[in-house]
Amino acid sequence: MAVQTGLGEPRGPWFISPELGPDGRGWWEPPEREPGGRRSRRLLAALAVVAISTVSGAVAGGVVAGQYGDPGASAASAAPVPAELVTAAERTVPGVVSVLAGGTTAGSSTAGSASVGSATGSGFAVDDQQHLITNDHILAKGGGGPVTVELPDGRRFAAEVVGREPRSDLAVLKVPASAGLTPLPLAKPNATRVGEPVLAVGSPLGLAGTVTAGIVSALDREVRLGDNRHTAVQTDASINPGNSGGPLVNARGEVVGVNTAIATIDGNGSIGIGFAIPIDQVQQTADTIIGKGG
User: Fold this and answer.
1) What is the distance between the alpha carbons of residues 270 and 222, in angstroms, rounded to a whole number?
2) Which end of the chain offers a freer environment for a tag, N or C, measured as fewer CB atoms within 10 Å?
């Protein structure tokens, strides 16, 4: 069974916020845990109060709407999804793949063989030559073994590693022309704005073609990945293990970044603070790799 890596590892991959202490604790966490798990119980109780308050508020709002608002209004009615996000998702999913690195080889639906990954993530097509962008740490976790790409329609192809750039945590793969992947358009450098809606697309927990929505929470956020510091796009779109290397796209379906890391608390999953490599850095690195590797 594939081992999920990258996003979702403790502060993964290798993410340590400059605001966190050397032990990796969040700024709000006490140096020592209280005996008997009292802090955990207090936290759960607080969360329960918030949950109960939220639910009661929603019910009360529904009652008021029913009495004084549109007779057809219902508390259970979901807010409409903006049409532009639906369109952006439809355009993006066909160009996003699952990436499996390392492991043993097994038969595939295409000619030859493909690897069953020991490290998994996502990637996306950037041109008609079937070049794909993904995160380097996925390949590193795969131990330099063979790389397989799984398309949205379930077909698998053995991928060529065109080049890797560990310092920027980016890598470029290439699959045969018969894959026929739709390249994703890239946003213009410095065009991304705080507050604009974005979608994170990838294969969290192996669920290919998953789309989650959020906004750009901040730009030029300094994070530390491995031994290097980077400026990143911060987003609250939900990203989890397997999203690494997938695109963060705006409402026009343009890639604004490559999902690379999340902040976590006590090594848990997404808490709504994720980071993506900005598209200007991605394009510059990818162009260099492709220029050298063909």
Assistant:
1) 19
2) N
Instruction: Tell me the C-alpha to C-alpha distance, in Å, between residue 115 and each of 100, 159, 175, 241, 275.
Output: 7, 10, 14, 19, 29
Which residue is catalytic, options 137, 203, 230, 270?
137
Q: What backbone phi and psi angles, to 5 degrees, belong to 197?
A: -70, 145
Residues 109 and 195 in one domain: no
Is 227 a catalytic site residue? no
Give catalytic status of residue 244 as yes or no. yes
Q: What percent of the chain has pLDDT over 90?
A: 51
Q: In the structure, what pLDDT confidence band is assigned to residue 265 with cuts at 50, 70 and 90?
A: confident
Give this prediction's pTM.
Answer: 0.70
Beta carbons within 10 angstroms of residue 178's beta carbon = 10
Q: What's the total number of domains in the chain?
A: 2
| 174 and 227 together in one domain | no
Q: In 3-state terms, what secondary structure has residue 45?
A: helix
Note whether 178 and 222 are same-domain residues. Answer: no
Q: Residue 261: which domain range?
A: 185-290
Query: How far, in Å, CA of 212 to CA of 85, rounded?
Result: 10
One domain for residues 213 and 197: yes
Query: 272 pLDDT band (50/70/90 cuts)?
Result: confident
Residue linked to tokens 């990258």: 6
Instruction: Please say whether the beta carbons of 95 and 184 come within 8 A.
Output: yes
**For this structure, is 287 an active site residue?**
no
Q: Both 195 and 270 in a single domain?
A: yes
Q: Do 229 and 193 share a domain, yes or no?
A: yes
Which residue out of 98, 118, 122, 244 is catalytically annotated?
244
Domain membership flag for residue 112: yes
Q: Which of 168, 169, 217, 236 is catalytic?
A: 169
